[in-house]
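Technical note accompanying the year-one report. For the benefit of new consortium partners, we illustrate the data format agreed upon in the data management plan: each record pairs a sequence with a structure-token string. No post-processing was applied to the example shown here.
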Amino acid sequence: MPPDYSEPIIDLSGIDIVKEESLIVSELNLKLMRGDILYLIGRVGSGKTSIVKSIIAEIPVNKGKAMVAGFNLINIREREIPLLRRKIGVVFQDFQLLNDRTVYNNLKFVLEATGWKDEKDIEEIIKSKLESVGMGLKAHKMPHQLSGGEQQRVAIARALLNNPEIILADEPTGNLDVDTANEIMNVLMKIHREQNPGIIIVTHNRSIVKRYPGRVMLCENLSCTEIDAVQEIDISQMLEEDVLE
């Protein structure tokens, strides 16, 4: 069945995000359509990463409406969570590659963990995804042999393995210099053009928000609400030198 472009692939309405009995975000409303680019910005501790963790069912949601890629997060069963996560590609700030195996085996590990068994299929998928991020010749390398930008490209390839409808990029350029950060954003924009996923980017980098336009949600004071991306609300203060909560 072809994807339904008229329905949100993320539809959160009136949800509270609670972590360790502390309210992090109250009454969150967030909709993401296929093809959307949405930035989450805000100070450290404002709930940006907690929203990402809620979307992948790492933090439970017990209130409101919470539909993600066809799954209801309110009553999702434990055995359904891996199926949900197959539809979501996550890119982390610190890459989270396994240092004891090659690039190829990092990706193979993920495919096998999500149910792939045929060696030929696995090889074709890995080759295709590495080539799509410009890392087709680095499959044999160990992570420590790669630059930060190359490791992040591999992390993006890993996020693409199951052709996700949603990409969640949590500070994807946070550990990179300016030029490498722009390279990584160009890779994400290429994927956006070619595959049309919905993309959520958590960032404190205001130049990225300005250079690669998208919708913007500002997280502060237990809320996260959409703002006019053009308005100057002194976004610089909200974005400068944040680290992940």
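Partners are asked to follow this layout when depositing records. The first strand starts at residue 10 and ends at 19.
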